[in-house]
Amino acid sequence: MPSSWLLIENGTVVDGAGSPASASTSVLVEGNRIVRVGPEATADAVPRGEPLTRIDATGKTVMPGLIDAHCHMTYGESRTEEEIDLYTSPELRTLKAAFHAQKVLRAGVTGISQPGGSYFIGVGLREAIKDRIVQGPRMTSAGRYISTSNSLTDWYPDSVGVPEGSIGILANTVDGMKDEVRRQVKNGVDLIKLADSPYGDYQAFTDDEMKIVADLAHQLGKKVTIHARGSAEVDAAVRAGIDWIMHGNVMSDETIERLARSGRPLVPTLLLLANVADYGARVGAPAPLRDGMKRMLDKTGDSLHRAHEAGVRMVLGTDTGFSVAPYGEWHARELELLMDYAGLSALEAIQAGTQHGALMLGLDGEIGVIAPGMIADIIVVDGDPVKDIRVLQDKRRIETVIQDGRVVVFDEAALARHWPHERGQAYSVTDLTYDLVHGGSGAPGNGDLPELDASDARDLVADLQHREASARTD
To answer: Is 427 a member of any domain?
Structure first.
């Protein structure tokens, strides 16, 4: 059977490996692999009679497709944690995840890793994409986050318990953790996700628990990642052999040094914080939440700049899936944030969003770079992201998406639709008091809503102000 060939001609190639851009360069693809880059990439290299598709990339940038290492396809663009965990049936959650996957791919994100989600929907979606039944980025997936009673995702009171649809599963003993690892591996996950403390102010898993989980997952051929915002958790995760770290908002110099020596990547995942801090007022995010996320960003910037200077490898991750970070809208903004809050250059940021994400796809050394022998996940961009990284945020400038050597054709009408999870039954965002309506001490004027205090907005960062002060940094 003859091979299929694709020739991308005369573009400016940004290879994803950190090399300077190469103008007027062509890329030749055979099947799903890049075979030639540069002067030898011509139509003359294609055997006579074999099908060839040509793309004129003159004046455009040719680069690897982006890899988002922190993308939650089961979150359903929810506005509350209850919407993520409680509302919408498993069947509808699955269909909505499949619908949203095409939006992610259209944004030039050709690979994602889902570090936790509802049921084993991510595993099913991964297989449907792989078999080309569903249009979406190539994918790896964890199951539900493994949590303790003191860590992220054990949201609800003990009287309620952990709902079956929760993104987390409770395991307070080593045996329980090992049982859950074995069950998730049996059900086809690619990686295990641990969830340490929500805010980084203490270490929710013991050193031994982290190591036992990591060792068992590795024994079973799987990777492990962890939600770790504070220095103590990051340090313990590195010592336990966890494969990559999510967040690292507050890190001491000693922790950063250990992380850098280990060679393990850090996925800072700044987008959720920045979108709420910068744009949250436009969608009604409470003032304490916006202010808390801005404070966390400032604190994170200090840690990330020191980590970058120490040589820590960073990876694009966005926490996409919330209403403030919807699918296919903001993935590339993380590159701009890595430049602003970690000090990366444009080429380093692109490398964080391409080559460095290959590990999370289980394809380290095979994807994320424009070079012979690499898998042909490629985008053609109208603009120069090295000069202005923000061009990647405009989907209209992602002119061509190539996945596994094939040009992707999108249903643009379908992409314009929204299909979120069922909404929570909210009655208001504050209390309708007499003084609010008729005026009184502390009441706002002109019918404006008051700014909510922290007790009205207990969310991920709503009470960070006092928690940050006690965060462990040793």
So the answer is: no
- In this structure, is residue 403 part of a structural domain? no
By CB atoms closer than 10 A (0-12, 13-18, 19+), residue 11 is buried
Tokens of 3: 């091979």
Residue 452 pLDDT: 38
- Reported in sequence order, the residue ranges of 132-190 that DSSP labels E, i.e. its strands, are 138-141, 145-147, 168-170
* Rounded Cα distance, 116 and 28, in Å: 36
Q: How many structural domains are present in the chain?
A: 1
CB neighbours of 89 closer than 8 A, spacing ≥ 6? none
Q: Give the whole-angstrom CA distance, residue 233 versus residue 312.
A: 17
The beta strand positions in 152-279, using DSSP E, are 168-170, 191-195, 223-228, 244-247, 266-267
On whether residue 56 sits in a domain, the answer given is: no
Question: pLDDT (tens digit, 9 = 90+) per residue, 172-215?
Answer: 999 999 999 999 999 999 999 999 999 899 999 999 999 999 99
* Helix (H), strand (E) at residue 10: strand 5-13
Task: Report which DSSP code applies to 448.
Answer: P
Sorted by sequence, the CB contacts under 8 Å of residue 286 that are 6+ apart come out as 429, 451, 452, 456, 457, 462
Rounded CA separation 327/74 (Å): 11
Closest by CA position to 247, among listed 214, 272, 222, 224: 272
CB 346 within 8 A of CB 275: no
Q: What is the per-residue pLDDT for 425? A: 80
Q: Which domain holds residue 314?
A: 66-362
pLDDT digits (tens, 9 = 90+) for 371-411: 999 999 999 999 999 999 999 999 999 999 999 999 999 99
- Is residue 444 in a domain? no
Tell me if residue 386 falls in helix, strand or coil: coil
Query: Which of these, 92, 461, 123, lies nearest to 273 by C-alpha position?
Result: 461
Q: Which residue has the tokens 């202005």?
A: 388
- What CATH number has the domain bearing residue 311? 3.20.20.140
What contacts 118, CB < 8 A, 6 or more positions away? 74, 84, 85, 90, 93, 144, 165, 166, 167
Q: Mention every residue, 6+ apart, whose C-beta is less than 8 A from residue 161.
A: none
- Report how far residue 139's alpha carbon sits from residue 130's, in angstroms, rounded to the nearest whole number: 8
Provide the β-strand partners of residue 343.
none
